[in-house]
Amino acid sequence: MKRVQSKLLALLLAMVLAFSLAVPAFAAPVDGVEMEGKIVILHTNDVHGAIENYAKVAALKAQYEEAGAVVLLMDAGDFIQGTTNVSDSEGATAVELMNLVGYDVAAPGNHEFDYGYFNLTNLAKAADFPILAANIKYEGKTPFDAHIVLEAGEKKIGVFGLSTPETATKAHPAKIKGVTFVGGEDLYALAQGEVKSLQGEGCDYIICLGHLGIDDETAATKNRSIDLLEQVNGIDVFIDGHSHSTLEEVKEATGGAGKVGDTYLTSTGTKLANVGRIILDGETITIDSVSTEGIEAPEDSEVAKRAAAIAEEIETEYGAAFAASKVDLNGDRDPGNRTEETNLGDLITDAMVWLVTKDGGLEVDDDHVVAMTNGGGIRAPIAKGDISKNDVNTVLPFGNTVAVVYVTGEQLLEVLEASTYCTPTAVGGFPQIAGMNITVDTTKEFDQGELYPDTTYYAPASINRVSVDSVNGKDFSLTDTYAVISNDFCAVGGDTYYAFSTATVVDTGVALDVALMQYITDELDGTISEAYAQPAGRITVVKPEVEPEPEPAPEGTYTVVPGDNLSKIAHKQYGDSSKWRVIYEANKGLISNPNQIWPGQVLVIPAA
Questions:
Q1: Domains and CATH numbers, the chain
Q2: How far is the C-alpha of 356 from the C-alpha of 599, rounded, in Å?
Q3: Which of 110, 178, 443, 459 is 20 to 30 A distant from 560 in Cα terms?
Q4: What is the pLDDT of residues 81-115, one digit of tens each?
Q5: Distance of CA 537 to the CA centre of its chain
Q6: 3-state secondary structure 365-398
């Protein structure tokens, strides 16, 4: 009897063991949320060479996969340019790391064209993921796939890509010859067509992976994501890039809703500070982001090791100090190189003038020589202390050369007017200058004329905002010829500099970053002194008088002023724009929609 019981017990134990091996272990939840069977879309945008954080993206992806979710990873553009870690290889190292991380799909940003259209097509061949761009044409044909359908468990996820039409004027014309970008009303129609195609393929969710942004400077041409979503229906989520907007800034731009119509709009800032997260669970869509500071990634992971090796290779070649600075040099966007004169802009344009004039040979006298470079081409600050080649390359990563263009004073004035059309709102064309003093009166309206051919910028119908106060201490003349030293991109009409496009251009062949390094070592004896501590006073920006803050309303209420939305009010009242919903809930009897408030309306403000 004992033998029979022993055999039976052994048989039962074997069956239990077999059953335990056949049934998978339950996956652990993430942040207390059960992930089994859910679809998680992780997304990035405007990484700009922050390769040290790719291992954290991979770790986050693995965490959700281990928790039982179906994970898709997407990027909304500007991944091949930004730091020397990726720009030195013209994007090849970025694509290599994205392959290792396991990206499923990407859309090209404008900076994907910095090294030329054909470089991007070669990178697309090296990528293990498709690059989607429905609105990019090359010689009239679509060179990249417009959309893709991804399988996520039993669901179909349709994804189509869009790239900003601003690329036509933000990329070097010679590097995108034959390439056009569909924009405006045609862009809306194209996007609606993509939605219809994906619906026809039975997609359960439709995602637009777009590099359009929400910048005010793009508002005139209505090529922003928020403009498109006012006209296009059927997109569940629009993953955006280009404007480096955080999710909170997107919410503020949409009145706190984070949606335009029925479409969620999301973006994650820049430099992989955050990873966007979209959770699809039936009809429920959850949008948020994860800070990479809180993500732990194994240092010995394949992604981390390769990123470290790339950084070490660059450091060996570019990391040694060649000079020093006694001051911090401003590389900010706004306020900074896209809104006002900066000490770094002064240093760069001084270097351009020095390079071209040190050996003579120009067709005009020295008092008719000026320099201009677009503020959007200045990408980083230089901190006080030692300066390496890597620092300079990060400031000026595009490989532009110093060029000279001969124009009349009238042409020069047109470029200045066009390049400050939206000042004090930031614009990449804002000029950093040397050899002249100018005033930009932002209390006057830009007199918008015709759209420049093949660009997204407008010519000024009249000169209304800019005056040239002096050129090298002398009076400015509309009829005189001036030698304008610029970068080769602006010299041939790039950005807002179209008026230069018909002029004679002489390219020095010297890279702008090399010119700056030579100026620092040869002219400044290797030290940037306190002479550059502050801007030199070459640009005066006249701004409207700031209206005084309204008188505070009685405690517990707030009177809406022009320009307010719930996010702004929450920031004023609580110091936290994300608390807009508290105000909305307290005023539901007064406002039925968070986007519908108006000046003079008195809102109830509950205690924080």
A1: 33-309 (3.60.21.10), 321-542 (3.90.780.10), 557-604 (3.10.350.10)
A2: 55
A3: 443
A4: 888 899 889 999 999 999 999 999 999 999 999 88
A5: 29
A6: CHHHEEEEEEHHHCCCCECCEEEEHHHHHHHCCC
